């Protein structure tokens, strides 16, 4: 550890961030801003060179938690004013194809923003290039960790070599199936639970219209609530829509012929067929595979003053509240506030993060599970029709 150049008495930490997804990339920026040395290790190739990440949600809803965190690294304005597509409410598709709106906030017109995962992740990584104190290592998979010593071993997946590194601080931002967290399972008093729900998701797509425009009004999160299951759509910058079908796995399994699938869509999502296109619907449905949804709770998030879990590694939640990335971004913001408060003294920062963060993330996790019922079913109940009346005023 070296002292910082700027005359500050605080130590310049040597930090390794494991995982260069959304949260790890943002955390690298926060740490770099504080003047620490940051090495970011990512299992996959550089997302800036990958046109599409298969099997992951293509776009996400950015809310105020995430915006606040982006603000402090100077990226909120660009994302909100120049890039993201605002969604000011839900647009509900009834069985007969008619629609109505439920504003998120009719008075202030607040909204959430549809942003592309690849774009946002690339932007965060690109921004890190402007800091000399950040190094990025792609194709590096964490395979072994000695957390108390702060030492990690990575496999370079493109050459099959292994490399070992040590750090003052290890940030585990390696997602829901975190290897850093796996190493923490052996720690005494480390609580961990994971819950897979019986529903999975499959992504479909509504393309842009023949003039390159949106086929549906873009400033809404569109929902086809059908009681036990639902479909949603978020707008993309190229005027297409990412459509996500959430349904019990058993229902996915039963739709095993083209005829059954088309009959199912005719019965439950008839207005979406012409929007998606019959051929594309069949291609995308049978070309993909439903993915599982897991909720993970654990605590504490730290090991001594050496290791901290953030993002999905600490608290993967089901996506129905649109808060996974947002809560992960908020982790970075909160950690920065604690670093400021304790002058980067990790022996104070990490325990306080652990002690104060878990209640909020557990609550978000529970709310996210509840919101599936809200979105797929309760949203159609009469209370919400009152909101429709207000919306139509
Ligand atoms: P990840 O995005 O999973 O990134 C982890 C990174 O670590 C990956 O790049 C991975 O390659 C890398 N990694 C993994 N293992 C290793 C290893 N051993 N060594 C090195 N690197 C490793 N959230 C919202 O806020 N709003 C939404 O609207 C929203 N919609 C969603 C829709 C769906 C269908 C799903 C599934 C999720 C949604 N989420 C949403 C949640 C959001 O995707 C996650 O919360 C977010 O991606 C978490 O970011 P992360 O960086 O913590 O983890």
UniProtKB/TrEMBL annotation:
It is found in: Mitochondrion; Membrane. GO terms for cellular component: mitochondrial outer membrane. Its cofactor is FAD. It is a multi-pass membrane protein. Its EC number is 1.14.13.9. It comes from the Eukaryota. It catalyses: L-kynurenine + NADPH + O2 + H(+) = 3-hydroxy-L-kynurenine + NADP(+) + H2O. Keywords: FAD, Flavoprotein, Membrane, Mitochondrion, Monooxygenase, NADP, Oxidoreductase, Pyridine nucleotide biosynthesis. The keyword NADP applies. The keyword DNA-binding does not apply. GO terms for biological process: 'de novo' NAD+ biosynthetic process from L-tryptophan; anthranilate metabolic process; kynurenine metabolic process; L-tryptophan catabolic process; quinolinate biosynthetic process. Residues 13-335 form the FAD-binding domain. It is an enzyme of class 1 (oxidoreductase). One of its GO terms (molecular function) is kynurenine 3-monooxygenase activity. Pathway: Cofactor biosynthesis; NAD(+) biosynthesis; quinolinate from L-kynurenine: step 1/3. Catalyzes the hydroxylation of L-kynurenine (L-Kyn) to form 3-hydroxy-L-kynurenine (L-3OHKyn). Required for synthesis of quinolinic acid. Belongs to the aromatic-ring hydroxylase family. KMO subfamily. This is Kynurenine 3-monooxygenase. It comes from Manduca sexta (Tobacco hawkmoth).
């Amino acid at each position: 550890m070296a002292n910082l150049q700027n005359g500050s008495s605080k130590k310049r930490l040597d930090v390794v961030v494991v995982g260069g997804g959304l949260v790890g990339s943002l955390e690298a920026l926060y740490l770099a801003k504080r003047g620490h040395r940051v090495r970011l290790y990512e299992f996959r190739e550089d997302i800036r060179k990958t046109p599409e990440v298969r099997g992951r949600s293509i776009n996400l809803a950015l809310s105020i938690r995430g915006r606040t965190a982006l603000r402090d690294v100077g990226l909120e304005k660009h994302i909100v004013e120049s890039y993201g597509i605002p969604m000011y409410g839900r647009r509900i598709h009834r069985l007969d194809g008619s629609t109505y709106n439920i504003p998120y906030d009719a008075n202030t017109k607040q909204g959430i923003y549809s942003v592309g995962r690849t774009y946002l992740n690339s932007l965060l990584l690109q921004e890190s290039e402007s800091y000399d104190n950040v190094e990025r290592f792609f194709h590096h998979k964490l395979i072994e960790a000695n957390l108390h010593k702060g030492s990690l071993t990575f496999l370079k997946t493109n050459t099959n070599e292994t490399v070992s590194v040590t750090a003052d601080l290890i940030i585990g931002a390696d997602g829901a199936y975190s290897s850093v967290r796996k190493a923490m399972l052996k720690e005494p008093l480390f609580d961990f639970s994971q819950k897979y729900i019986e529903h999975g998701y499959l992504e479909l797509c509504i393309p842009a219209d023949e003039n390159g425009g949106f086929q549906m009004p873009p400033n809404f999160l569109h929902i086809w609530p059908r009681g036990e299951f639902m479909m949603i759509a978020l707008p993309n910058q190229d005027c297409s829509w990412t459509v996500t079908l959430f349904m019990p796995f058993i229902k996915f399994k039963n739709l095993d012929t083209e005829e059954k699938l088309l009959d199912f869509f005719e019965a439950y999502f008839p207005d979406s067929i012409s929007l998606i296109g019959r051929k594309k619907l069949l291609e995308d449905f049978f070309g993909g595979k439903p993915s599982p949804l897991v909720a993970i709770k654990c605590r504490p998030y730290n090991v001594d003053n050496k290791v901290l879990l953030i993002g999905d590694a600490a608290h993967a939640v089901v996506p129905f509240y649109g808060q996974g990335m947002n809560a992960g971004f908020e982790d970075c913001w909160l950690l920065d506030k604690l670093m400021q408060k304790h002058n980067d003294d990790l022996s104070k920062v990490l325990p306080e993060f652990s002690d104060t963060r878990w209640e909020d993330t557990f609550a978000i996790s529970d709310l996210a599970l509840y919101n599936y019922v809200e979105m797929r079913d309760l949203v159609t109940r009469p209370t919400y029709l009152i909101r429709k009346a207000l919306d139509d005023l």
